[in-house]
Amino acid sequence: MSDKFDVIVVGAGPAGYVAAIRCAQLGFNTACVDKWVDADGKPSLGGTCLNVGCIPSKALLDSSEKVEQASHEFENHGISVGKISVDVPKMIARKDDIVSNLTKGIAGLFKANKVTSLHGHGKLLPGKQVEVSLDGKTQTYSADNIILAVGSEPINIPVAPVDNDIIVDNAGALDINMVPKKLGVIGAGVIGLELGSVWNRLGSEVTILEAMDTFLAPVDKQLSREAQRTFTKVQGLDIKLGAMVTATKVAKKSVKVSYTLKGEEHTETFDKLIVAVGRKASTQGIAADEAGLKLDERGRVDVNDRCETNIAGVYAIGDAVKGPMLAHKGSEEGVFVAEIIAGQKPHMNHDNIPWVIYTHPEIAWVGINEEQAKERGINYKTGFFPFAANGRSLAMNEKGGRVKMIADADTDRVLGVHILGPNASELISEAVLAMEYSASTEDIARTIHAHPTLSEAMHEAALSVDGRALHKVN
Ligand code: FAD
Ligand code: NAD
User: Fold this and answer.
1) DSSP secondary structure of 72-122
2) In testing the pocket of ligand 1, which one of 48, 52, 164, 293 has its CB within 8 Å of the most ligand atoms?
3) Which structural domains are found in the chain, ordered by start?
4) Is this prediction's pTM over 0.85?
5) pLDDT by residue (tens digit) across 415-465?
């Protein structure tokens, strides 16, 4: 094998593997270096997303949602199934199978696209070279262009050191093989809520300790308030806002957690504790000092709007750079950079990236929320439609949530769409597409939506901006 490539990508997560495939499609001789190994010590492509992130968490969310439905929903449909029992190891094994299929799928895609897969730790050297090391052996490769897609890792807090036995991070939380009676979670962010929901549905008593006083700060307030009510009052998640963990003490099979809340000291004992307080870029050791790679104040690779680093011909994408830590954002940057390298003029709209939280109901949004519209002094108008008035939603026994639309009051252009409700993850695509084409709410209102569908809630929310929703009083 030659040690010279047109492009070397470091990292095979959703940012890196997509970049590598797109580079290969564009005719570049491409290599992708990745160091990830699975539980058996075998190389596994796909990064955080496929191995310990998006995919395994959604597999468990789906399994646990089925348990929830069988236990509490089937009866409403006139179906009785008797006592439900859950085989957690089987559930975890199903999740592992899905991960294994998908990670092997990336290896297959690399082969089909003639991307050279290099296993080991990649390090950027001066002169657009990458040193790949594995088990004490190193080899150096060079390329005309290098794309750093090294991703992110969980933030650790000294008061709760992760041992992935009793105190676990997101990876450990996906491999718990029996339902903990009492589960503690530090952080009521995306991971805390998704994984807290999984174990809550499977029968754990879940307490979430969140340092901030506000719940889901990035989410539109009207929706976050309704979501908080549903998660706590209906689903029984005990979410303590303004809780500061001060100490943890691990015993043989439990952990004692001390925290302060409203100036008072509290102690609670849990069988497992998940730490989910955010993630940081995995940039340690990715470049030799002499390479001179510039990092920003948060340790991310410093890039401009074209994902170019301070070194000509070296790009960085995904969780390792500024912007939301989302798989689709990283993948899109991968395509964007490959096309820049090919001399094309690609476009990537960083203001139009959808977010989804896969709780039940799901939360999804794109663009600005009402608070941001106020802060920016925008002359705006809003419309909303509740799922309780949507026929398809009621047929599915889904009565909560709403679609909320924010538009410019002068131009009617859609500025943000926020959904709390069934299949919000799928519904949000219509809003993303509308915003990509600078649509007005009238454009959505004049678009025919099939009946009966959840998407009619989007149609009605658009009509409601103009005070003419048909199935609610405006
Ligand atoms: P990563 O996926 O982290 O991949 C980086 C890769 O680079 C890894 O394989 C790593 O081994 C490799 N690497 C790092 N350094 C080196 C080196 N020096 N040499 C060689 N290889 C190296 N996002 C969503 O959009 N939707 C979701 O539903 C979602 N759910 C999530 C659930 C959980 C529990 C977690 C933890 C994250 C979730 N995310 C989700 C976030 C998503 O996983 C990340 O945004 C995404 O994986 C980032 O992609 P990436 O390619 O930038 O980095
Ligand atoms: P997060 O930023 O979503 O949430 C972390 C939460 O922990 C915040 O609410 C923060 O206030 C709180 N916190 C921080 N320090 C704390 C402390 N010492 N004590 C108590 N609370 C504390 O981070 P996360 O949940 O770890 O997820 C990391 C990232 O992974 C997400 O931001 C997202 O980018 C990505 N992710 C995405 C999805 C998805 O798209 N559905 C799912 C999971 C993860």
Assistant:
1) IIGGGGT----S----HHHHHHHHHHHHHHHHHHHHHHHHHTTPEEEESEE
2) 48
3) 4-154+280-350 (3.50.50.60), 167-277 (3.50.50.60), 361-465 (3.30.390.30)
4) yes
5) 999 999 999 999 999 999 999 999 999 999 999 999 999 999 999 999 999
